[in-house]
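Example record for the data management plan.
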Amino acid sequence: MLVVDDEALIADTIVMILNRSGFHAEAVYSGTQAIEAARRIQPELILSDVLMPHLDGVEAAIQIREFLPEARIVLFSGQAATVEILARARARGHEFELLPKPIHPTKLIERLRKGQ
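Corresponding structural encoding:
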């Protein structure tokens, strides 16, 4: 699993929680790093923040889907602007799961396991 968030503390904390819950997770801190890591590790699941500088999570997810179409991509955000970004992606034919941020670790684990 790949965890993407430009706030390193958040990404690292999520990775720690997931790894302690039986997942194998790795953190990266930008959309560009997410694309590079996805090519390298070929994750089955990507959990990404939406609003990040330079390359947002939705654009990174769209690019990752081009070479990793079977990966489950779950986006998370606490920002209202996310709705507009997801609407633009939907208009381009891309649908993504969305989780609220912050999310309790127990709820996060439940949601991620549902798709396995």
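Summary line stored alongside the record: Residues 2-114 form a domain with the Rossmann fold fold (CATH 3.40.50.2300).
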